[in-house]
Amino acid sequence: MRMTRYLPYVLGAALAALFPLFSGAYLEQVAVGMLIYLTLALSWDMLLRSGQLGFGTAGFFGLGSYAAILLFLNVGVHPFVSIAFGGVVAGVVALLVGLAVLRLRGMYFAITTLALAGIFAVVLRNFPGLTGGSEGRMLPNCIYAGNTTKIYWLVLALAVFTIVISEVFERTRIRLALTSIRNDERVAKSSGVNVFKYLVFVFAVTSAIQGLAGGTYAHVFGFVSPEGSFSANFLLLPLAMALLGGVHSTWGPVVGGLVLGALSEYLKLQIPYGHLLVYGAIIVVVTLFLPQGLMGTVRAWWRRSHVTRGAQ
Amino acid sequence: MLAVAKLNHYYGKAHVLRDVSLDVGTESVGVFGPNGAGKTTLVHAIVGLVRPRSGDVTFDGRSLLRLPTHEVIRSGVALVPQERELFPYMSVRANLESGAAYIPGARKDLPAALQASFEMFPILKVRARQLAGTLSGGEQRMLAIARAMMSSPKLLILDEPSLGLQPSLVTELFHKVRNLGERSAILMAEQNVRQSLKAVGRGYVIENGQIALEGPSDELLRNDHVRRAYLGL
Description:
heterodimer, A: two-stranded antiparallel sheet, 15 helices, B: 233 residues, alpha/beta, Rossmann fold, 2 domains, 10 helices
């Protein structure tokens, strides 16, 4: 029983780990991009489970990128240490910012977090001595000297780490707290949930993950710049992935990330300048016809077929 | 156990609580009054959902006024809010669990408390896996009360539990409330004076934010003002 229960996870992990054995450098490169976006999609969804629509993803991603690269260039630590530092900086900044902005709700919270990317980018641009100003900074060498297989494993580790954190959130008391806050904050308070503490906690954790993703991304591609590192793509693509896969669960954003990541790469080859149009169309169609996302639709179908079988 | 002393609260310029004082020992106490009298504001002031301008609320000798709501709840007060009292997109079971999961002392007794809820409201066991939002109005109210009792509170506060229920359910509800009085002290805000007076031992009548009358239930039942204004006699 226990064995069969974990079998899909073990198989999935093994398949993901062994992927480089039967793929070339090109597919590995594609997978690296997909996994980074998947990590962001999952972290965005983890905050959404508490009912808070956060638009700070790109901001904390860029902050993590800069923190990692600047520490690496100026102090000369191991890349892993600098990536971890990127996560810590993003987490700590989110904690401090969260103490203030998590008093806001709904659109006000969303807009304020959206502004973070802009603020971080402006601040960093205005310390050219340290950050390279609007030029940004380049690494002399990418991590692992650009070896795509090793890079793939690194990014895979990041994605798996995020999945594990997300599952911990789903399987402990944190889940009940976040779900109850999303359902009705006043009732959550009346059940003894420390609403503010949980929101600050989850905001800091998810932002730290985004910082880790940023640090990793910066080491993989070897540069940071205000426009590149804080690009709205690091907010919009993950958001689309989570919506496509289905929000409020671990596997929705994961599946959405894999499907949309693969699809957009394929479309890029088919219609080089029009793939974003198709991309947008997919999002419109999904919101109209699969509002629960892919996983939500599968789950509803599964439940229905089981109920019918039970009735016979 | 609970002492409210000279509470004053304003919404803008409207003076909605005027020197309200009341006490709850270990018995069941009702707060009666028409719409807009200040019953819900009083309840919210006790649990910290609104901050009164002056006065004090003490529970077991400790002031609740500066405490955030979740701390008040953890100190042994449970609240059944007026309407919107559940998490509609969570299962009945998860709703019940949320009543005890965040109360440090109640967590380890969760299975026993769940059992007690199902004994008190058997329908909840049948519905355990359904989403709370799919229950009927009466079942939802029962669930809200059961959830509040999950933490074995010292004081249970009910804010208009009979609101929106059909008459036969109202009778059943107050019957349950009377039984609950054996397990905890109760403070119940109600408009349905006729029926809820049978469920409590003592009551306060609140009008325009002031305590207009107080006394044991049977005394209130005989009072001319109560009979004319609330019982239609």
